[in-house]
Amino acid sequence: MSPAESDDELLVLVGEDGTVLGSDRRAAVHDGRMRRHQAISIVIDTPGGRLFQRRDPRKRAYPGLWDTSVSGHVAAGETYEQAAARELGEELGLTGLGLRWIATVNVDLADERERTALFVASSSGPFSLILGEVVAIAVFPDGIRPEPMGAATHAVLDVVDGALST
User: Fold this and answer.
1) Among 7, 37, 46, 147, which one is most buried in terms of CB atoms within 10 A?
2) CA-CA distance, 165 to 92, in Å (whole number)?
3) What's the domain count of the chain?
4) What domain range includes position 66?
5) What is the C-alpha radius of gyration for the chain, rounded to an integer number of angstroms?
6) DSSP-based three-state secondary structure for 151
7) Going residue by residue through the chain (166 aa), what tens digit of pLDDT does each one get?
8) What is the pLDDT of residue 4?
9) 35 touches 15 (CB < 8 A)
10) Sign of the C-alpha dihedral, residues 94, 124, 161, 157?
11) Could you tell me the CATH number of the domain that includes residue 37?
């Protein structure tokens, strides 16, 4: 687990349709019972391509893998939009970036179930590398996805790319 994560953080539990069911500690949500919880994912396009982050190897989920520009959980008492703004600051040092909502989708993985709000934004930076959350950030040309990358990130990017192409 990275230094920025806390087992005591309260996460929002939701049903398949997004109905809020309550909240529970991060440790309890990730205890293998596969309870769906809220999350966010942000894709940032830059003049040179798409910004990706490489997750800290100490993260509980998908350590060391490439991910969208920003991702994280929605804490109890937060909206998806508030969580997205908080995570932008925690992971890239960004504030006040205009976000556009794309979709909210259920992401079902072998070890986790999330209801994830997907956002996009455009920025030329500057971006800050916030150690403990990420170990690298890089811009890849449009259409190129870095590897290794988790199946959930590929699925999220497929939704975003489909929405942006219409």
Assistant:
1) 37
2) 26
3) 1
4) 10-164
5) 15
6) helix
7) 444 567 788 988 999 999 999 988 888 877 767 788 899 999 999 999 999 999 999 988 889 999 999 999 999 999 999 999 999 999 999 999 999 999 999 998 777 789 999 999 999 999 998 888 899 999 999 999 999 999 889 999 999 999 999 8
8) 52
9) no
10) negative
11) 3.90.79.10
**Cα gap 160→133, rounded to integer Å:** 23
Of 98, 59, 67, which is closest to residue 81 (Cα–Cα)?
98
Give, in order, the Cα–Cα distances in Å from 147 to each of 31, 53, 133, 141. 28, 11, 18, 14
Alpha carbon 53 to its chain's center: 10
56: enclosing H helix or E strand: none
The DSSP code for 111 is: S
Whether the model pTM is above 0.85: yes
In the three-class reduction of DSSP (H, G, I as helix; E, B as strand; rest coil), residue 136 is classed as: strand
Residue/partner pairs of 99-105 with CB below 8 Å, 24 or more apart: 99/42, 102/159, 102/160, 102/163, 102/164, 103/159, 103/163, 104/18, 104/80, 105/156, 105/159
Residue 94 lies in a domain: yes
